[in-house]
Each structure stands twice: as structure tokens, then as C-alpha cells.
Amino acid sequence: MTYSFDIAEEGEYEIAVTAVAPHHGDPALILTGTDNAVLGAADDTEGGLDAKTRMILGEGNYELEVFNLEPGKASFELLIDRVDE
Fold first, then answer.
1. Computed from CA positions of residues 44, 64, 14, 23, in that sequence, does the dihedral angle turn out positive or negative?
2. Which residues pair with 79 in a beta bridge?
3. DSSP state of 37
4. Residue 27: other Cβ atoms inside 10 A
5. How many domains does the chain have?
């Protein structure tokens, strides 16, 4: 599934995709910018099956592709948070 989102203010952001019940899966993500260049990807972060990345994003529109690496159904929670120092 592809999600489109806007960043209104440049800063450091954390993007996390977590598997949730009832259909746990193995999420992965690919982040692209306005020019369709791949800015980041994540899978199996911190020793688990969830996907998380942290990076500085400028103002603009982004697309996030989230997919399941296991066969069958999966349920995921997506969070995009600005990281405040």
C-alpha cells in the first residue's frame, strides 16, 4: 500500500510501521521524495520484524510504500512523528 504525506516544516522525523493483531506480518517500507528518488528503506529494525527509520526531511510531498514480506494478510500501524530534540 502506498501512502502520500506532506511535511510542512523541515526537521528530523521517525517513520515506523508496526505489525498489529489480528494479522501480524513482517512489514517493510520504502520512502520516496518528490522526484521519486528513494530516500530510505527499512525492514527488521532493532532485531524485530517491524520497520523503522529516522531521517531529516525537508518541506514537501513524500510517498511511503508499506508492504508485507510474509504471505497472507497483515495488519500494520503507521506512525510519522517529528523528533524533538
1. negative
2. 16
3. -
4. 28
5. 1
Q: For the segment 30-69, what is each residue's pLDDT rounded down to a tens digit?
A: 999 988 899 999 988 777 788 999 999 999 999 999 988 8
Residue 68 lies in domain? 2-82
CATH number of the domain to which 60 belongs: 2.60.120.380
pLDDT value, residue 85: 64
Distance CA 68, CA 66 (A): 7
Residues linked to residue 2 through DSSP beta bridges, in sequence order:
65
d(CA 4, CA 50): 20
Q: Is the peptide bond before 22 cis (omega within 30 degrees of 0)?
A: yes
Distance CA 20, CA 73 (A): 11
Question: CA-to-CA distance for 6 and 60, rounded, in angstroms?
Answer: 6
